[in-house]
Write a structure and sequence with these properties.
Helix content is about 40%, strand content about 30%. It contains 7 helices and 12 strands. Helix 1 runs antiparallel to helix 3. It is globular, with a radius of gyration of 24 Å. The chain starts with a helix and ends in an 8-residue tail after the last helix.
Length: about 280
């Protein structure tokens, strides 16, 4: 009986279920009947209410799942898996080699991962609060082509819930046009873990965005960005970017490595200019 009661209570909080005739009335009756059945000496009202809240929360999440199609749930799961894999790569501090270090302290490292390939890691400090970076990189993602010359366009193809999006990115030519135009279709997942924001993604298939003529379909990672306030200086942000890309096509590894490493250095510079050129707006990660 309790399970049915919780389902009715949780279900009545959803707009598409509140309009179902009699549902809320049934929920109220079920709660009343269940309360009347509680025998003396049983759990206290406070304990019972806490139990309802815990089970109601679980059932609420189960009901949320029913709001998505199988394809949408698959994208959500793929985004979360990309995040876990990328964080796993970053958590291993062994084996990283320095590719470059700029005068301002920006550093690019690299590492070869079995079954993944060579990945690149950018470490920078930006003189802006984390919320400002989140605003630019997530909330205004589609505007990246305005300030990053390496990106021609980013378009959100589909938004799934509050954390997951499917995107199409068209990259500009690189290395003096030695690397021709590439595009990417990716699932991206954004999460907050304590004071840290994690922006992760990887290549996916999206039937409504087939390969484009004259453009090579490359593939992302798993890849991710970590944003968190700099210790002792909360107005500044430490940004770590794990870059893992298969550019496809016939390209020498030396050119690929040079392009990817320089892409990260350029990104940091362009991001700073963008943040400095626009007034600070309110944003929440």
């Amino acid at each position: 009986m309790l399970l049915a009661t919780f389902k009715l209570c949780a279900g009545s909080s959803y707009r598409h279920m509140r309009n179902m005739k009699g549902l809320r009335h049934q929920a109220v009756l079920a709660i009343g009947q269940e309360l009347n059945r509680k025998a003396p000496g049983g759990p206290t009202p406070a304990a019972w209410i806490n139990q309802v809240r815990r089970r109601g929360s679980l059932l609420g999440s189960q009901l949320e799942d029913t709001l998505y199609s199988d394809h949408e749930l698959a994208y959500i799961q793929q985004g979360e898996e990309a995040m876990q894999r990328a964080l796993g790569i970053l958590s291993d501090q062994e084996g990283w080699k320095k590719e470059s270090q700029q005068a301002n302290g920006d550093e690019v490292l690299s590492k070869v991962i079995p079954d993944v390939g060579k990945v690149f890691r950018l470490e920078v400090v930006v003189d802006q609060p984390m919320e400002r970076l989140y605003e630019e990189l997530v909330e205004h993602m589609e505007a990246m082509g305005e300030w990053n010359p390496n990106v021609k366009e980013i378009k959100v193809l589909q938004k799934i819930g509050k954390d997951t999006v499917i995107t199409h990115e068209l990259a500009a030519e690189a290395a003096g046009n030695l690397v021709g135009p590439r595009d990417f279709v990716s699932v991206r997942c954004t999460k907050r873990r304590g004071s840290m924001c994690v922006l992760a993604g990887m290549a996916t298939h999206y039937g409504e965005m087939p390969e484009q003529k004259g453009v090579i379909r490359a593939e992302h990672g798993p890849t991710c960005m970590l944003l968190h306030p700099l210790a002792g200086s909360p107005a500044k942000t430490k940004l770590t970017w794990l870059l893992n890309i298969d550019l496809k096509g016939w390209l020498p590894k030396t050119i690929i490595n040079q392009v990817l490493s320089q892409t990260q250095v350029d990104f940091a510079n362009h991001l700073r200019k963008r943040l400095e050129s626009r007034p600070t707006l309110e944003a929440r990660c």
